[in-house]
Every structure is written in structure tokens, then in C-alpha cells.
Amino acid sequence: MFVCFSMAGSQPPMSSNPVFPLVPAAIPATCRESGSLLTTEFSNTNLFVSYDDSRRIQRIKKMFDEAQLSVSAYDTAWMAMVPTPTSSMEDSPFFPQCARWILDNQLSDGSWGLPLPRRDPSLIKDALSSTLACILALQRWGLGEQQVTKGIRFLDFNSASLKDQKQHVPIGFDIIFPGMIDYAKDLGLNLPFKSTDVDAMLAKRNVELTSGFGRNAEGRRAYLAYVSEGIQHSQDWDMVMKYQRQNGSLFNSPSTTAVAFSHLQDPDCLRYLYAVLDKFENAAPAIYPLDIRSRLSVIDTLDSLGVARHFTNEIKMLLDKTYQCWLQGDEDIFLDTTTCAMAFRLLRVYGYDVSSDRLSPFSEDCFFNSLEGYLKDKTAVLELHKASQIIYREEPILEEISSWTMKFLKQEFCNGSIYVDQPGESISTKVHDALSYPYHVDLERLGHRRSIHHYSDIDSTWTLKTYCCPNIGNKDVLKLAADDFNLCQSIQKKELKQLGRWIIENKLDKLSFARQKLGYCYFSAAATLYAPELSDARFSWAKNGVLTTVVDDFFDVGGSMEELVNLVQLLENWEVDGSTDFCSEQVEILFTAIRGTIREIGDMALARQGRDVTRHINDIWVELVKSMLKEAEWSKNKCVPTMEEYMKNARVSFALGPIVLPALYLVGPKLSEEMVSSAEYKNLYEGMSTCGRLLNDWRGCSRDSEQGTVNAVSLLLLEGGRTLDDAVEEVREAIEKERKQLLRLVLLEKEEKGMPKCCKQLFWNMAKVLHLFYMKDDGFTNEDIVNVAKSIVNEPIHLAP
């Protein structure tokens, strides 16, 4: 039996109190009694979007149109320093519009760079670098004497930050900034830095430039090419040009490309620089183009905050384009680790069939011999780790990536270096969550709450040679997510009150043998089927969860063999009515509650499906109680089944059928009789149930052994030839195999007559619930589950003003 609702073979507690106080003691009489009535009120999603949120949605949709990158004063300055090649004296700028931008965009404190309201206090080194680059550009052409003076005052006032170890360091700062100081000397500029500090920076730069290449030689060469503006005349330009891309750029970096053009007058470099100015008119971003990564980041952000369902069409259009770029081998995907990993993950999750072979360049050795590997790019490693979780076949490359990225991230997290290359706690939090809640464990609503809690504009700041701010950090997104979460929660609170009333009206609280686990049962629905319009599905899921818990306790400890047989016969006959058919009050209470729930769900399904599925729902229940009766007979007769006999029955007796299968009729699409009798339907159900049963047997093997209960581990031991550890490992590997197969069935689209994706998702939702509940022990004793359940159903989100 599913741990969320029971623990087969264990003695249930006799208390009728819920495990946590989700259900108020007093239930208002005005609460609706029927899930279908509630859903009639909540059937239209648009009814739940306020006017303000509707406007927010429209503004957010514009984020899909194009990647709106912030311009970079640093990169604009290096473009402004490009001389006109045809001038013999090289005394005029090739891109005078960039010089004008610098003159017009100095900040009030004398600096250039991130706008002051957005500048994190830990980003002063970035401001120093951008400001010095702009000063050099103006001095180079004899412009803006007043701006130069103000800029130098800013350098003077903030010079102490150069030695501040708590400051975040842009990529290449230790090479580029001393290089700019040298260039300032050539231009006759007196900078306000102590000579001892300058000497120390120059010495550090010299060490970095002359240190050996080591095992990641290619990564170091790429790094030195990327920071060419800090090397200039000492640079090996032939080596640098090996990194030129099809668009003419070097690393999609305007600053690197501008410096290369200054030295080489390469026409493809110039073509790229013109393209940048065509797009941004008189300035340059820190990286261009960034369309694919930026737009994928928008999808990922909306997904992580729980509001992606409001942008279904936009997401599909964007992913269709991304898939075409993937198939065409677009270098904007495959030359950037983060973009490639994110594209792979999102395409797979949304049902596109993409091969993991394209991630082969990110094996441990290959990655650490790349630019990102040389820089120990934590964001890239984190994205690779998340991508490696979407594994649904035997894929050695994903298993290898999962192994080395997990080891790397744990090590970086433990030693504190996870903080050094990005401001705020964003990357640290994301790493913690990814390691603590793998994809197959993380319930959607739990992830949404964490993401909303930790969301900030700093999340959208990317670390390059300067800090890049694309348009994924957006207060509209955060407010929409918080409103959506609180709206769903307010609906769920009402539903939970109704379910509490339903338990009392059906006298389930009078059954002294039964555990009262409404809170857990409803939590598993609310955490996965959270949209307002899925109210019917939540009611079906939770009610059947409560009933399967009680029935399992009845078959385990609460009923005599006569009562068990009586309940099975009543459900088989179905139409029977009258007290003479019940051998006890317990049987009457159970049968009446089950039959009433089946009929209620049948009525709700009829309205959606256009056909009566009541008999099918009843058959699901009959199959369950018959499997439970067989286990009771095995126990009574001290019969030990074969592994094959055990698993065939145990998949059903785990009791996921009544919880998940009826809910399929209530999530939207019409399901034909052909669909629910197909091999795909059967495989989804068996895969989910096998995962659950084996998880229960793995985590509960010690308990079952003490109680003399048969499970998969004990049967493997009876077969002989293996130790307990061997048997446990065999079961664990079987779980992993079943999980991969289940994920493949869920994610990959089938023929037109196959199960709709939103229906298949319910099987995966339940598998995730199971893995979460069994993550540490075998179920109800885990106080963490109590706390997260409260956070979903009881605790609204309050945003800071």
C-alpha cells in the first residue's frame, strides 16, 4: 500500500486526529459538499486572474519576443577605442557613436556600469572595470575632460575595493584591469591607485599569464583568448582567431571582437561589430547574440515559479524554434554549455525527442578542458547536473555527467567557493535545491514555493567580464507567481474543509482501526494538481487516497476474514443495497463510502467525458480489494508466494489504482475506451505501481522482517545466492530502471490515439510523491513531509514591499 496513505503490514495508530492540523475542527455549514459543485464555480481559469495579473501576463509575453539585453558600458568602451583603420595617425574612432554613448551615460557617482539602483554592493570591482574602460576610451580621443575627472574621482573613492576579498570578481579581472592600468600610463593618465597596489596587481597578472597550461590546456588557451583586451600586443592573435564563430565574433563578446579587429582588421569581426550596433544603435551588450539562452531562461523561470501554464502557446512556439536549432546544430546552442544543457532539459521535459549524444562534449575531462571548465563555471555545471536528471533510457553519458557534476557541486558547496562568482545567495540556493531535490523527487508546488521565496533581480545577473542583465529578472513575474500561489492555496483550503466534512458525514472517523491521513492525501494532490480548474481531480485523488488508507488498515488489522470477503463481494455485486447484505457496521461504513465516492466521481467524469465510466472505476476498486484479500489469505495460511506471484499481486495491492486512474478522467481531455485499455495505459500504471511497491519494500524491509511480512527483499533472500545488501541493491536498481522507463512513457509523445500528455503526467506525479515520501524512511514518521505539506496548503506567500 502507498506510503502516503498506508504502510502495509504495520499496526496503525488508533488516534483519529490528523497527523497535522490542516482540517479545522469546525467546518462552516456554508461549505459546499460536492467537488463537482466547487469545480463548476472554478471551471474557467480566467475567472481567477485579476485585472492587474492579466496585464502582467501581457507584459511578460513580450519577454518572448526578443532577448532584451542590458547594454554594457565596458564592452561599449572597447568598441569606442577601435581606431579608424584608414587614418594614418589613427586619431579618430571607428565607432564615434559609442564614444557619444559614454559621454551621455555616466552615472551620478561618476561611474559607468550597472545602474545604481540595481548595483549590488558586492559588484564594485565590476564598476571599477567599466569605469576605467570608459575613461580610457574618452582619453584615447581627447573627449569628455569633465567626465574623465569625475570618473577618476570614483576610482579614487572606491580603490579600497580592489583588495576587498568579499567583492565579486568579473571574469578575467586580474588580467584585464592591470592591463588597462598599463594602457592608462601610455595615454598619460594619472590614476589614483597606490603604487604598491598597482605593483601587486601587475605581479599577479604576470603570474597568471606565465603559469603553465596543465591538463586543461585548451581551456586555458580559450580563456586567454577571451580576455585579449588585457593582453593586447603580447597576444597570440593566430591562436585567438581559432575561436572565431560563424557570425564573425570571438565568444560572442563585443569587447574581445573589438580588440581583435583593432589589431587585425578582420572583415568578419567588423561584420559582427556592425551587427551589434545595428541591433543596439550606439552601444554594445556584454554578450551578443543571446536569444536562445535568454528565451530558454524565461521558460525556465516561468516553470520554476509555477506560472508557465499561462504562456502555453508562447512556450510551444519558442521550443519548436529551439528544437529546429538543435537539429541544425546551431552553434549558439552547442558552443555554450549552459545553453546546451538547458535546451536539452527543457526540450525533453516538454516532450521533444533529443539525443543525449549531443552532451558527449561535457564529460568530465572534456568539460574541464573548455573555457567554462577552466573558469569552474558553477552555473554551467548546475545546468549540466539538472539536464542529467532527465534520463529515460540507458544513457551512459548522462549517468557520467550526473556523477561528476554532483561530486563537483557538493565539493564547491561544502568549501564555500560556490559563492565567489555570483552576487547574492542565488547560485548557492539553486545548488542546494538541485542536490536535495532531484527531478524525480521534487514536487512541483514545493519547487515553486522555494523559487518564489528565493527569487530576486540578482538571479538575472550573469557573470562575464562584466555583469550581464537580460530581461528574465522581472517583478511582474514574481508578483504573478505569488498571486497565483496564494489564489490556488485559498481554493485548496476550501476544498480541504469540504473533505473534512465528507469524512465525518461518511462516518470514516468512527472506524477505530483506521488512520486518519486526510492531510497527507490532500497534500499529494495539491502539490501536483494545483491549478484551480483541476479541483475535481484533487477531490477524486484525495478521497480515494483516504479510502484506500482505511481499506488497507481494514484488511491489515481492522476486519475479520468474514468481513473482508463480505466487502469484496459487495463491490463485485455493486448494485446491492440494504443492511441485510452487510455482516457488520464496519463493512457498511466502508462500502457506503466507497460506492458513494465512485458514483460521485462517475458523475463528474460523465460531464467531462460524455460517457459513463462508473463501472470502470468500480472495477478498479474490485481489483484492489481482491488483491488485498489474496495477501490476507497468504498471511493466514502462511503461504510464501514466488517473486513473480508476489509482484503481480503487489502492484495492485499497493493501491495506486483508485487514486490515480479515476483522476485521469477529470484533468481535461476525453479518454476513449481504447485508450484506457491500451498497452500504453497498462505500462504507465504498472511502471508507477512497481516503483511504489519496490520503494516501500526497500525502505520498509527491516520493519517487514521484524513483523514477518513478505516483501520483495525477503523473497530475493529466500531465492538464495545473495546477501541482504545484495538484495537491497537489486531492488534499488530495479526501481531506477522502472523510473526511467516510466519517464520515457510520460515524456515522449506517441501516436494521435495515445494518452494525452497531461494524463500521463499524473503517473509521473505519483511516482515523484512516492520518491519524496520514501526519500529518508518509510513514510509517516518523516516530520519534513508535515512541514512541507503545511507550506503548500496553509501558509500564504507574503512578498516584501
UniProtKB/TrEMBL annotation:
Keyword Methyltransferase: no
Keywords: Lyase, Magnesium, Metal-binding
UniProt-listed InterPro entries: Isoprenoid_synthase_dom_sf, Terpene_cyclase_plant_C1, Terpene_synth_N, Terpene_synth_N_sf, Terpene_synthase-like, Terpene_synthase_metal-bd, Terpenoid_cyclase/PrenylTrfase
Domain of life: Eukaryota
Cofactor: Mg(2+)
Biological process according to GO: gibberellin biosynthetic process
Protein name as catalogued: ent-kaurene synthase
Lineage: Eukaryota, Viridiplantae, Streptophyta, Embryophyta, Tracheophyta
